[in-house]
Write the structure tokens for this entry.
Amino acid sequence: MVDLNKLVRENVKKLTPYSCARDEFNGKTGIFMDANENPYGNQNRYPDPYQKELKKEISKVKGIEEKKIFLGNGSDEIIDLCFRVFCNPGIDKALIFTPTYGMYQVSASVNDIEIVKIPLTGSFQIDIKKTEPFFSDKHLKLVFICSPNNPTANSMNYTDVEYIINKFNGIVVIDEAYIDFSEKPSFIKLVNKYPNLIIIQTFSKAFGLASVRVGMAFSDTAIIEYFNKVKPPYNISTINQKAVSGKIDQAEQFNRQVSRIKKERNRLSAILSKMNIIEKVYPSDANFLLVKVKNANYIYNELVKRNIIIRNRSNIVDNCLRITIGKKSENDQLIRELKSISI
Ligand SMILES: *Cc1c(COP(=O)(O)O)cnc(C)c1O
């Protein structure tokens, strides 16, 4: 059984969180003389620290209770909070499956947490046999699973992931930044079943709101309460809360964009796989393609010269490039320029 009390850092359990003016009184009307705000202007008031209106909207669409939702200044703040709530610097560890999103390692390093890296298999799946022995390490607090995974673009096998949630007595974090581009189901409903699960989603990709910096976490209420205790009180500005408000249930507009991107992904994938300079296009459940080439550095530089910027991932996946799906005209331009490169 997972014992949250044993997982959370002692200092976090003991700390008295900052009590802001809006914690003590959160009515909407009145003469506000409690937060040392300037009485003039229209950006003069502090934001709602718990983003209640926004959570109401998200709760409806996702079918998850408001008290099981946390909003962060991007998913990156949520990743950092996982380390700060559960991992003692210099002592505890987190496990990741490589190659994967770079922020898990960076956030771990900032917090002085050792990262255990388990390479994904040849088909970019989790190697359960190699992973399981680490579960008995009492200092291992977090396992990060990115699905669909960045930069490999595939989803992890559902049964492997649920096996890990069941077997590991620590916290499992599933990063679903690309879930809206995938045909595979989200793991979100499992937060009602497992108290050690955190699902992360974001407004940065499918919702087209990367500049706004709002990430979502779904998990058991006890974990959300610790996140609320540790976060800076006003972590999401009023401007940013408003920018996201009303977007989550704009299903039609947003589905149109996502299906356009998916259609382009399939078209681009088919064209690229026929090109001589490309060895392999990996299957994608995301809004990008991972492609293997003969000389990644050369192709990357040639594209930069032609004013097309892709991501060179050859230092983490041998001779691989990551290409974000653009508009049709942009994808066409990429294809034209790739054809003009001779190797
Ligand atoms: C892009 C991305 C995110 C998004 O991070 P935000 O801080 O919400 O913009 C999260 N996880 C992965 C794996 C990503 O690729």
In short: Residues 74-76, 101, 146, 150, 175, 177, 202, 204-205, 210, 215 surround pyridoxal-5'-phosphate (CB under 6 Å). The chain has a mean pLDDT of 96. The longest helix spans residues 251-273.
